[in-house]
Structure formats: C-alpha cells, structure tokens
Design goal:
The complex is a heterodimer of chains A (329) and B (397). With 329 residues, chain A is α/β, with parallel strands linked by helices. Chain A has ten helices and ten strands. Helices cover 45% and strands 12% of the residues of chain A. In chain A, the strands form three sheets. Chain A has a six-stranded mixed β-sheet, sandwiched between helices. In chain A, strands 1-3 form a two-stranded antiparallel ribbon. Chain A has a two-stranded antiparallel ribbon with strand order 7-8. Chain A is globular. Classes of the chains: A alpha/beta (329), B alpha/beta (397). Chain B: Pfam families: Transket_pyr, Transketolase_C. Chain B: Its cofactor is thiamine diphosphate. Chain B: It is found in: Plastid, Chloroplast.
Chain lengths: 329, 397
C-alpha cells in the first residue's frame, strides 16, 4: 500500500513538472509502440508513430482527467449519490483519447453504456457529466437519461445505450446517413467483448460490408462480458477476425497506437468500407460498481491501475527526455 | 333517451315515447318513418322495402360505376397505389425521406407499395435490406438520429417482433433519454392482421404489443383515402409513427382527390353518423361493421360507426362526443381479447365517460388463440358481422 501511495505521489509530481514543459515541446519525435499490430485481411500499420511531446502531454492530461472523473464517480456511487447503474471506464481511457486525436467532431461516435469518458472526449464538460449522473436538470440529458444515456449531438456523440449490442446497428445507420449525404466522415461504432457475441453485430457487419458504409467497429475487450469471463462466453476471442470478409486490426491499448490505428481505419473506411478494431484495455472496474462484490481482488486492481499509469508516464518521460536533450543541444 | 329523440330529424305529432323494449326507427335522411312499436310479427319484407326507400348508403366507401367515373373529380386507385402515391409525393418533396425493407427495391415490395420507386429514386433511397429486421430497424433509427427520415417496411408486421428492442428502446425512448437532443422521425409500416389462411405466425396483430411503448404513435389505415393521408402525415411527423396496414385491404378501390391532402394522425373518422349505439372499430373490422350495419339498419337500429384510426393516442374527443350522444358503446377489433386495443379503449372510455354510459361497454375481439390455418377455424377466431349484429341487439335492449 505504501508503495502505491509513493508511486501516486510521484505521479502528482510528474503532473506538476509537466506543466512547466508544455510550452517547449512541439518538436516531432518518433515513438515505437510497445507491441506490433496484428492485421486480418489488412496490412498492419507500422509500429513507429510520429508525435510531439505536447501531444503526448495532452493525451496524458486528458487521460488523468478521465481517470479522476471515474474514480470520483465510483466514490459518489458508493455514497449513494449516483444510483442505478454506473459503468466506469477507468483503464480504458486510452481508447477514447486516441480516437479523439485521430478524428474530427464531424465524425460520429456511438457506444454502449460505458460512455462517460467518450462524452468528455467529445467535448462534454465535467459539470454536464456529474449533473447527469446525479440526476440534475443541468445534466447533458436533463437528468432523464442517467449514466447510460450521455449524448452530445453537436459533437457527433450519439450515446449512451443501455442494451448490450443494440448500438451497433444504430452505428450502421449513422454510417448510412453519412454515405447518403456524401459527407466524407466516418462512424465509430463501439462495443465490448460481451456484445461481440450478439447477432445484431453480425447483421450490422454484413450490411456495412454490403453497402460499403464508412463504419468502423471498435471492440473494447476488457475480457469480461458483464460478469462472465471471456473464455467462458466466446469460442473464439479473436474478435477482430469475426468480420470474416471485413478486415480487422488488433492491438493492446495505448493512446498512441489507438491514434494510429484510428487514422488508418478512417482512411480505410472512407475508401473501402467497414473495418473492425480490437482493443484490449485493462478495465479496472467490473461491469459496474458493486461495492459488495468484486471479482478481482483489491490488490490486483491497484497493481493494474498503477501499471497502466506507469506505462504512460514512461512514454511521456521518454518524450521529455528527448526534447530536453535537444534543448540542451 | 329524451335527448336522443330531440335530435331525431322527424316532425310528427303521433310520436310517443317508446318503452325501452321497443326501439324507434329513425333514419339518416329527413323522411319520417315512425313506428309506434316494433314486434317480431312485422313482415320483414315489407319493412325492408319501405326502409330501403329512405336509406342512404350504409357503407362509406363504395366502388364507382364506370359510366360516371370520368365525370367525377379525383382519380380512382387501389389502397396499395394510394400508399405508393403518398410515399412518392413525400420522397419528391423531401430528399431526406428514404425507404428500407426487404424486397422494397428491385422486387417492388411484397405488396407492391414501393413498385417503381427504386428505378426513380435509386438503390440508396429505396434500400433492399437483407433479412435482418433487428439491425435494419436499428439502422433506420440511427439514420433518423442524424436527420434522415427513413421509412421501415416490415414485410409482415409479425416480423417486426424481431426488432422489438430497437422499436421500443431506441425508436421510442431516445427522444426522452437524450433530454430532447434527438428526434426520431421514422415511420414503421407494414401489413398485419388475419389474412386468408396465412397461418399463425403471419396473422399477428402487433398493435396490441406495441401500444405500451412510450414515445411512439400508432395509426391504422383502412381506406385508400386515409391510407394516403396517414402515410403523408406519418412521414412529416417528427415522432416515430407505426402505420398499421392490413393484408386483406390492399386491393380496395376508391376515388381520392387529385389535390394534395394530409390527414391528422390523432383524429378518428366518422364513417356513419347514428343515434343508438357507437361502434368503434379500425382497419379491416370497419368493413365487417359496415356489413353488420346494413343488417342493423334493416332491423331498425341506427348505429354510429367511428373508425378510430389513431390507435395511440385515442381520439377521445370524437369518441367522447359520440358516447355522449348514444350512451352505448360497442368496440369491434381484430386484436386479441387480452391486452388489445379494445381493452385499452374500454378502460379509457370508462375512466372518462362513465357517467354517459347507459350500459357496460361491449368489446368484440379475436379469440386468444394462435390463428389456425383451416379456413373455417380461422373465421371463428375473428369477429364476424353476425356477432356484431347480435351484440348490438343485446346492447340496445
């Protein structure tokens, strides 16, 4: 426990130290992703990603904000100020942040009920989010939707859906509308490994491939479908291959690799039609916050939390070191 | 009773207040035909002959004589053509309107409602979908969220049960759960109802299953005139609308106006004004009721027939005025007995107009069974005109 506290104090120091470096770091640097991409019916993009320390810093800042928000939501839920369901996205923030970096607000995103951080990424404010979670009329859905129904129409965020898998055909519809109006935008239809076993996903894949809709299906595999582990629910965990004729990309989640693959996916979707992306973020919270039952032990949770943040810190540090070195030169 | 007599357009000094067991005859037009009493010994033939002279037509929609067709205004067409005309006019008017469903494009629609539209508007606007109701209904909802106005055709309403989640949760509830950010201007339409021996799964009445879904509007068309008007109104509405057609009504012929018209989605239609009993019905049962009305008029009754058209919300204004006039209600529907449209309507009328009723509401519905294949059995599960006549006679005693 002491080690964890020590490390999180380090984290705070890092954050404050970073603020001093924001102005200095727009020089491009090349970072290599920790693991290569795996492609199915598509050439995987290269591991080297060009970025700037400033971009990395903004990723980190956004991710920390999202993490803080989710942890706060967890505490509020346990204090019974948030009722009903509260599905948290901590551990998976890299997907939201990487996605936003690769696209514009005209592209559409639709997801299931783990939508708090994507809402933030699309330009939602903390005030809107917490007001909605606590059922106030200043919330993004006027307090009528709750945790599972965050929407932001002007930024192309279409929610926020409670039924597992039902948002995927809706995403198909968003892509259809984009093709209909001939605007060069794409739709990201996000779902989890649990929803990957839904029939309507395969129906949507078929239709998207049939009509070359600019739809990108993003599977966030946190290895648990509601309460059941992936290996007990899915015969084949290779979700990126489930499209068969639809190409797929697989990666372990980091924000940079998210960004790269989202860019690749967007180009592909605009030219050739649908593509599946599979991420394996390590979600920290289970389906939703249930204070009386956790299927992962507390210690393991904290270790995972720490490890994810540490990985990103390392990336940030690498970037600063290089820019610092250049400055010294 | 007195109020009813006052409204009879009859001037006769010899008229005296009849007792409840005998029913006075009043006719649609102004010629007085008075009976002081009515007994079964009266010669039915003489009675019929005399009443025929004064009766105007008992059925609202009638096929026109070809000799006079050319001189009358408007044009004659079948119900499915009327639907197509409405659809085509709306697609011409607004480029955001599109159709999606099974066999709607190249095949022209399983009931020819979209025939010729794919050639005119292209494959994207009249989209042939694979057999995947759940996802193409979801796709329509997603497209509607961005501003398109899709029309989903269920080849048979029963197939839309597969899309129930999309219709209920996404189509119906998204406007609410998003705090008003999104409107879902979809139209979900298709034929339902009991046909000619189509079997249990293809003879379903989905209006009873959908009526509880918060957020959707439901309408049922029954004539070419109201089919075209309701189709246009449904497409123009910002709410999700479910338009119920009937498999057996597609070949009804009627003369409709040439000029553009749009009907209201929340209004009921007065088919035949009357005095003794209000008969509320919709879709195919309207024709069974009108057939029964002919018999009833011959027997001396004067039923008021209202086609409710709007299944959700009910047009309680028109219905209420009618109940206040006649004080007796008979509901004739094709839905199942349990949890059908008639059940909701009975509750609504009881709640709102209880004081005006002289008798309990009678609701004639289909039997709570899967529709059999055998023709005779199928007939027995659905309300027939003879049952309607018997019910009115009992109600008016």
């Amino acid at each position: 426990m002491a080690q964890i506290i020590h490390r999180s104090t380090n984290l705070l120091k890092t954050v404050s130290a970073m603020r001093h470096l924001t102005t200095a770091s727009t020089t491009p640097i090349t970072v290599e992703t920790s693991l290569p991409f795996t492609g199915h019916n598509i050439e995987p993009p290269s591991r080297s990603v060009e970025t700037t320390p400033q971009e990395l810093l903004s990723f980190f800042r956004d991710m920390v904000l999202m993490r803080r928000m989710e942890i706060a939501a967890d505490s509020l839920y346990k204090a019974k100020l948030i009722r009903g369901f509260c599905h948290l996205y901590d551990g998976q923030e890299a997907v939201a942040v990487g996605m936003e970096a690769a696209i514009t607000k005209k592209d559409c995103i639709i997801t299931a009920y783990r939508d708090h951080c994507i809402f933030l990424g699309r330009g939602g404010t903390l005030m809107d989010a917490f007001a909605e979670l606590m059922g106030r009329k200043d919330g993004c859905s006027k307090g009528k939707g709750g945790s599972m129904h965050f929407y932001k129409k002007e930024s192309g965020f279409y929610g926020g859906h409670g039924i597992v898998g039902a948002q995927v055909p809706l995403g198909c519809g968003l892509a259809f509308a984009q093709k209909y109006s001939k605007d060069e935008n794409v739709t990201f239809s996000m779902y989890g490994d649990g929803a990957a076993n839904q029939g309507q996903l395969f129906e949507a894949l078929n239709m998207a491939a049939l009509w070359d809709l600019p739809a990108i299906f993003v599977c966030e595999n946190n290895h648990y479908g509601m309460g059941t582990a992936e290996w007990r629910a899915a015969k084949s965990p290779a979700y990126y291959k489930r499209g068969d004729y639809v190409p797929g990309l697989k990666e372990i989640t980091k924000s940079l690799s998210c960004e790269t693959s989202m860019q690749v996916a967007k180009e592909h979707a605009l030219k050739n039609g649908p593509i599946i992306l599979k991420w394996t973020p390590t979600g920290i919270h289970e389906l939703h916050v249930r204070p009386w039952k956790q299927y992962r032990t507390r210690v393991r949770l904290l270790v995972v939390l720490d490890r994810t943040l540490k990985r990103n810190r390392k990336e940030m540090r690498k970037g600063w070191m290089k820019s610092l070195q250049k400055l010294r030169i | 009773m007195a109020a009813m007599l006052q409204s009879v357009r009859v001037s006769s000094a010899s008229f005296h207040l009849p007792d409840p067991s005998k029913v006075p005859l009043s006719s649609v037009c102004a010629l007085p035909v008075i009976r002081s009493g009515r007994s079964s010994s009266l010669d039915p033939i003489h009675e019929t002959r005399r009443t025929r002279k004064v009766l105007t037509k008992a059925v609202a929609a009638q096929a026109e004589n070809s000799a006079t067709a050319a001189s009358k205004p408007g044009h004659e067409l079948l119900l499915f053509e009327a639907l197509r005309e409405g659809l085509e006019e709306e697609m011409d008017r607004d480029p955001r309107v599109c159709v999606m469903g099974e066999d709607v494009g190249h095949y022209g629609g399983s009931y020819k409602v979209t025939k010729g539209l794919a050639e005119k508007f292209g494959d994207l606007r009249v989209l042939d979908t694979p057999i995947a109701e759940n996802s193409f209904t979801g796709m329509a909802v997603g497209a509607a969220m961005t501003g398109l106005r899709p029309i989903v055709e269920g080849m048979n309403m029963g197939f839309l049960l597969l899309a129930f989640n999309q219709i209920s949760d996404n189509c119906g509830m998204l406007h609410y759960t998003s705090g008003g950010q999104f409107t879902i201007p979809t139209v979900i339409r298709g034929p339902g109802g009991v046909g000619r021996q189509l079997g249990a799964e293809h003879s379903q009445r989905l209006e009873s299953y959908f009526q509880s879904i918060p957020g959707i509007q439901m309408v049922a068309c029954s004539t070419p005139y109201n089919a075209k008007g309701l189709m246009k109104a449904a497409i123009r509405s910002e709410n999700p609308v479910v338009l119920f057609e009937h498999v057996l009504l597609y070949n009804l012929k009627e003369r409709i106006p040439d000029e553009e018209y749009v009907l209201s989605l929340e209004e009921a239609e007065m088919v035949r004004p009357g005095e003794h009993v209000t008969i509320l019905t919709y879709s195919r049962m309207r024709y069974h009721v009108m057939q029964a009305a002919k018999t009833l008029v011959n027997k001396g009754y004067d039923p008021e027939v209202i086609d409710i058209r709007s299944l959700k919300p009910f047009d309680l204004y028109t219905i209420g005025n009618s109940v206040k006039k006649t004080h007796r209600v008979l509901i004739v529907e094709e839905c199942m007995r349990t949890g059908g449209i008639g059940a909701s309507l009975t509750a609504a009328i009881n709640e709102n107009f209880h004081d005006y009723l002289d008798a309990p509401i009678v609701c004639l519905s289909s039997q709570d069974v899967p529709t059999p294949y055998a023709g005779t059995l199928e007939e027995w599960t659905v309300v027939q005109p003879a049952q309607i006549v018997a019910a009115v006679e009992q109600l008016c005693q």
